[in-house]
Amino acid sequence: MSQIPTANDIGRFRVLKTLGKGAQGTVYLAKDPHLQRLVAIKTLHLNAAKSKESQLKVLLDEARIVSQMQHPNIAALYDAGEHKGQPYLIFEYVEGMTLAQRLKSKGAIPPVKAVEIALQILEGIAYAHRKQVVHRDLKPANIMMGGNDIPRIMDFGIASNIASEKVASPEFKGTPLYMAPEYISSGTVGPQTDIFSVGMILYEMLIGRNPIQASTVQEVLDKIQHQSFSPPSIIDNDVDERLDNIVLKALSKDPADRFLKAENMIAALEGYLNPVSDISSNNGKEGTQSTMEFLLRRMRHKSDFPAISQAISAINKIAASDNESVSALSNVILKDFALTNKLLKLVNAAYYGQFGGSISTVSRAVVILGFDTVRNIAVTLVLLEHLQNKPQAAQLKDEILATLFGGVIARGLAPKSNVKDVEEAFICSMFHNLGKLLATFYFHEETVEIKKLLQQGGTTERHASVSILGVTYEDLGIGIAKAWNFPEKIISSMREITETKIHKPQTEGEKLRLLSGLASELCQIASNTPVEEKGAQLKALSARYGEGIALSDKQLALAIGDAMREFLRETSILELDTRQSGFMKKISQWSGIADITKSEMQNSSANESEGGSELGDAALQDTVLHSPEPAGPKDIDSAESARKAAQNVLAAGIQDITNTLVDDYALNDLLRMILETMYRGMKFSRVLMCIKEGKHNTMNGRFGFGDDIDQVLKSFKFSLEYSPDVFHVSLNQGLDILIADIDAENIKSRIPDWYRKNVGAHSFILFPVMIKKSAVGLLYADNIHSGALKIQPEELNLLKTLRNQAVLAIKQKL
Questions:
Q1: How far apart are CA 319 and CA 199, in angstroms?
Q2: Which of 222, 233, 359, 631 lies 20 to 30 A from 415 at CA?
Q3: Residue 801's closest CA among 656, 644, 611?
Q4: CA-to-CA distance for 182 and 102, rounded, in angstroms?
Q5: Where do the HDOD domain residues begin and end (predicted)?
Q6: What pTM does this model have?
Q7: Which long-range contacts (CB under 8 A, 24 or more apart) does 794-797 make?
Q8: Domain at 97-275, CATH from 3.60.110.10, 2.60.120.620, 1.10.510.10, 3.40.50.2300
Q9: What is the mean pLDDT of residues 436-456?
């Protein structure tokens, strides 16, 4: 008997109820009378403002994509059609609820169960990727939880071909909370876009909510691009460090740091469920490599290891490249506020101060001290900063102090050892014992066992570390140094000095290795032998290195004392806590130096500058930055302290630039110093310098600092043919302009399309660079994180002084 059609029928299908509604369509539960089975029907709401053909294409594209998919973790597509002008798709009906509904009703999922669900989602995604399809909109609402908790991926409506590196349309598609950073910043789509989304889903399953908490879409996008994710274990104690690491790796900002393929993340999660119980007991090179990989996996499970690895690798890559600029290295360092401050304190200390006087910007430090010196200081600080603030045993503190002390000794001995580059000597010695330092931090229990074996006697540290860890400290350090992109010269210097008779070195690399070994041994005997044995120990050490590095026992004794003085200065600058350190007590006794007075840095003052002229345009009247009236009394609070700190940075930079202007300087270097001073002092999101290009009559972004600056610079270009927008008003009339909100009613028509499309910060400031009433450049700064720019009168004067210094610098070079 045939079924009588009803008004609710869609084609031959009898609609039973609505399963869900969204902006793009509705999903119904229906019955197929021919096959006597339940199905899910997805319809598309046609938008009258868009062409019907383009909207039908969206649904047809999804049908074509999903029709290729035959996988237990992907909801199957049965049919497609059109009913009364409305297109629809017929899917397998998965009885149950979406993962989003489950999380909302039941909260967080236990870690093992969450991993099992994530594994099945990844199996479906891996299958789709093999079919050259990227989903692009993975989220809990698009995952149906069927019987036995088997997830089924749904809604391939915005999927794209894996071969496409970028999305053709500038329109964002997808759900902001699950979008990958590279898609937000540049529209890039690939397998790692889906991996990021799976990482977000797994995180959400572990803690019961999305890790991004924000009130606006823009805030969501900003946090995904710029805010580091905290380990899930901070919220749920049942999540361990191994699972933390997997989640955080999937959520890495740089897709290159994520799992390369879905299969790689599957392997990691399966390893979490079935961990390796024992370190490989194989012998020989293959066994050592296997053990190294195992130890590196364990280290990556620590939540801080990806961060330290990424920072050191990035700095090393830039310093080693012939194509990278001063801006690139400065930009990496400037992203870490604490690192920048400590680096500048250090380069202005007694040792480095002899090279250039006061240095207030990283850019000037690179110019004066060189790429390698700044690289060496930066990676040292990154390493020490990450390790010293962790709640770890006293042994770790001693290893950190010994590492730094060895570097200081080598730097002092370098000139006496005919080593040309004293900074290379410092960094090579610093990292000579990298393996032991990191093992103490990451494998503390194992290093305690190694120490016990040594105390029992009858073995060496090499044999003890192999018996407990499976590799020597040396091999572990070298393996990590390679992963961190250290140059070969440093890696070679990490090899232990095992020769009984040391010959004169023939190359600079051999000199560095011998000096690193000597500094390390000198540091060890100073911290491990009684003072009364000092003379004998130094004579023995001098004799051992006799031909290789001809230094007498008296010279070595003096080196200990000199190093101790410099070491105390640097530990003070670096804020290393030396209290209760057994290592410090021993080397203090050996050197006979127990204390040193801290040196203080002085801030410089700066001159004020003139403001811009009045603007007749009423729409832009409030955007012009006038010279301020004298400020009245202010409340003394934390905000005032922050303003004073900003003014100090700006003033110090102005003084440094003033000193540079009287020397023979490269114009680009000085302009970078101006930009960096603005960036650090005001904590802008981005600052950049535009230069007029006469041939094409355009203003082009040349260099800058801040978030996604390379991408922004490529698109910051506009014609100087007049247009009634804020940029041309600023340049034509020589006016300093502050835009608090580009969408304000009286302003929005004056914001050019190229800016909204390519830059889009809601608040920015413009300082034209004028020579003879003609614009030759433009200083731009914005705030993309926390609303409108807030600039105090004193700060405005200092910023204008910086702009005036740019004018003077360009005039002097014309």
A1: 32
A2: 359
A3: 611
A4: 29
A5: 305-500
A6: 0.54
A7: 794/628, 794/631, 794/643, 794/647, 795/643, 795/646, 795/647, 795/650, 795/681, 795/682, 796/611, 796/625, 796/627, 796/628, 797/608, 797/609, 797/627, 797/628
A8: 1.10.510.10
A9: 84
